[in-house]
Amino acid sequence: MISIPTASLASFSQREEMVDRTKSKVLIREYNEDKDAKMVRKLERNCEGGTKKVVSIFTNMTGDPLSRIRFFPLHVMLVAELLDTRELVGVVRGIIKNMGTLSGSFLKMGCILGLRVSPTYRRKGVALRLVTAAEEWMVRNGAEYAFLATEKNNGASKNLFTIKCNYVNLSSLVIFVQPTSSLTKQISTDIKIEKVDIDLAISLYRRTMRTKDLYPLDMDVILKEKLSLGTWVCYYKEEGWLNLRSKVNNEDLINNNETSRSWVIFSIWNTCEAYKLQVRKSQLLRFLLTTLNHAREKVFPCLKMWVSSSDSLCRPFGFLFIYGIYGEGVNLGELMESMWRFTSRVGEAMRDCRVVITELGFGDPLANHVPQTDSMSCIDDLWYTKRLSSHGDENVDELMMNGQVRNVFVDPRDF
């Protein structure tokens, strides 16, 4: 998630003059883990804040600024360094991965996962230079598109990327957030949640991906990552799911005529081992204008309403992310609710887990079956994309030719 502060009252010409002066004083270069780690942590602390009357939330990366992007073979972290003092005043993270589309084509896409600039160097062109450098790295490594995510109400961030960087809206999504302690009701005895082995999970996902407008091609890598706790199938005991196994073997999982059986598949990603979130109350905090990563700003609006009643959120905590959700049948509501309760139980058994989260595209049919409880919070999310290069016809835009993509797979590594 990227966040840029509201524009100042300085005139356009004054801002341009400041940008020119700053450009000659700032070097954009690749992050050096040996000498930059301490300074990046300092930069992160300087970008934390809130108003006098609200809480703030920040991300504890457990001392490793690369902890999230290490999951991707192709990744980069760029920093903005003052030439005179060698101080770091900005940072951006980027990755590249291979994606598949509903039409059956494959795309190489870059993703901007984090952009932050020191408070004293905002509105001086540093953010734009960091984004441009990240895009140039993506092009050098063969990426055809770049994409990023931001909240719907983050006007400043949207203006930066749509007006200055020429990004266009790719998709609209909804983030669902719920504290683990809020789900106390027992799972129905009529429902069974069964863990499947990783080979079967890979087979299931390779077939369910056919329904997605956009999805990663390395699902096997995601499922085998140590932060992925496993994959489960939720179904009604009286219906069973033996036929599901036979469908997988016959490669006929999707669009089968047997629609009487209802089932849901899902996987769980454990962020507690990668980074943690923490809520702070303070009389001296500045308003939260920047973010370390995508997850931090997404979770923040929801956690504000819980912090007053949950002192445990004031200590570092992690969350579980439900991903790869796919379902078939007519009775999905109770199965989806059971999936949430099951994941909450998993989270409650983990010392540092406090929240369960998932994200679904606005065209995903399962978005209508997420349990709507008083403790469930929703955040509107937007994905933006930009075409960087093409290996074929320059006039054909594979990703945007059919308008906004509706039903996407949300990669837990991006969140």
UniProtKB/TrEMBL annotation:
List, alphabetically, the Pfam families matched.
Acetyltransf_1
Which Gene Ontology terms describe the biological processes this protein takes part in?
auxin-activated signaling pathway
Sequence ranges assigned to domain N-acetyltransferase in this UniProt record? 26-228
Q: Which GO terms describe its molecular function?
A: acyltransferase activity, transferring groups other than amino-acyl groups
Checking CDD domains in the record gives:
NAT_SF
Task: Name the InterPro entries for this protein.
Answer: Acyl_CoA_acyltransferase, GNAT_dom, Plant_NAT
Task: Specify the protein name.
Answer: N-acetyltransferase domain-containing protein
